[in-house]
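So, read this over?
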Amino acid sequence: MEISPDAWVLYEWRDLRLNATIVFTWGVMAILVLGSWAVTARLSEGETVSRWQVMLEVIVSTIRDQIAEVGADTPGRYLPFIGTLFLFIATANVLAVVPGYEAPTGSLSTTAALAICVLVAVPLFSIGERGLRGYLRTYLQPTPFMLPFNLVSEVSRTVALAVRLYGNMMSGTVIVGILISVAPFFFPVVMQVLGLLTGLIQAYIFAILAMVYIGSASRGRRGSDNPAAAQETEAKGD
């Protein structure tokens, strides 16, 4: 049993290898791009609205509400990035019901790439809101001696984000393989249903954690730049 789609090589020419992770990642991206184009090309503001537009509006509104519940003052600012993360991971996991398909999120290279996107997005959003000087100053809080620990924390949570998603998807594949060997006619159906639910939950958790990292960085900067305002906010919270 192949745990990771990286081991499934579909085409090889000299040192160039085209494995299932790359092919299925392109497939998921193509589905998202073509689906988005097909739905948004027929948007309507009248009374007659297509079912696809209703579904799209529900998805966008739900993601926006979830971002706002994390504490973002302007959820629309983070919606494109967080929404893309959620839709990519959810689509990649849901397509696991298609025979012959291997979810690219079962590869550590894919989850690491997604985590790196979050690692880059956190300072970009923070710099855009507070400026480069304000962002760099947070690494010296509460004292300059905390600089190495803050750097290690920034890297370690990115690694944890990648390993967490990869570990959950890989463990699901292993459990399905074991159950299929025990009862090949019953457990596959049950595990496929549970796999769909688990895949959506993992996409939700990854997107929320990404938003929490971005939101916590922004809130930390506001407090560090203006201690008086931070104390006033804490007093109101008490």
